[in-house]
Design a protein that fits this description.
The protein has ten helices and five strands; from the N terminus they run βαβαβαβαβαααααα. Strand 1, helix 1 and strand 2 form a beta-alpha-beta unit. The chain folds into two domains: 121 residues, 3-Layer(aba) Sandwich (Rossmann fold), CATH 3.40.50; 96 residues, de novo design (two linked rop proteins), CATH 1.20.1440.60. Helix 8 packs antiparallel against helix 9.
Length: 225
């Protein structure tokens, strides 16, 4: 089971290689492009669910590519990749429709969550969202990220990020056939939900939705076993 299709766009081969290897290892299908022209061809071909896009590239730069992606697909999540000195420019891309931005050198924990959140947001807006619900692991991850993003900052850092990480780990282990490990992450998620509810960090409606998805994931484990 794949978690989604990521397009990595960067004119520097080492950056493409690092990101491609990392996300492939995490369970994503990854395409790479060395220029804006190549990137737009991949997007037009419907071969990506999310784009990691370098801001500064020769020829078509990241901002130009972002504008063209927005013309092709209004829902495609695009995460801008920038050097620290370009953080101001990266912030400006949010006004153009970028989903988020990350700086080099990468904080992979943050990048991982940003990618998962971007894919979850796209799924919510997609006409295929109902079909995603047929996959209990993707459905669970989507609901968890939605609930965590709605938490207050302190609650999100204390509990929400752990919920997100556990949801991703459960999906990856289930996809790799490691059902016992997946079940352990489901138990961790249940404990975190209980803690969040006890402290009033998670609305009852959000908790009910996530727990329903947790139960569906548990049923899929039982069937797989």
């Amino acid at each position: 089971m794949g978690l989604g299709r990521i397009l990595v766009v960067d004119d520097e081969a080492p950056v493409r290689e690092v990101l491609t290897e990392y996300f492939a290892t995490e369970g994503y299908a990854v395409e790479a492009a060395s220029s804006g022209v190549e990137a737009l061809a991949v997007v037009r071909g419907g071969l990506a669910d999310l784009v990691l896009l370098d801001v500064r590239m020769p020829g078509l730069d990241g901002v130009q590519v972002l504008r063209r992606i927005r013309e092709l697909d209004g829902n495609m999540p695009v995460i801008m990749v920038t050097a620290n000195e370009d953080a101001g420019l990266a912030k400006e891309t949010l006004k153009l429709g970028a989903f988020d931005y990350v700086a080099k050198p990468f904080d992979f924990d943050y990048l991982d969550r940003a990618v998962a959140a971007g894919l979850a947001r796209a799924a919510e807006r997609s006409p295929l969202s109902r079909a995603l619900e047929d996959d209990p692991w993707k459905h669970l991850a989507r609901l968890v990220f939605g609930a965590a993003r709605g938490m207050q900052p302190l609650a999100r850092s204390a509990t929400g990020e752990r919920l997100e990480a556990a949801a991703l780990a459960a999906a990856r282990n289930a996809g790799a056939g490691r059902m016992s490990a997946a079940d352990e992450y489901l138990a961790e998620m249940q404990l975190l939900l209980d803690i969040a509810a006890e402290f009033g960090d998670l609305p009852a409606a959000d908790r009910a939705l996530v727990e329903s998805a947790l139960e569906a994931a548990r049923r899929s484990l039982a069937l797989a076993g």
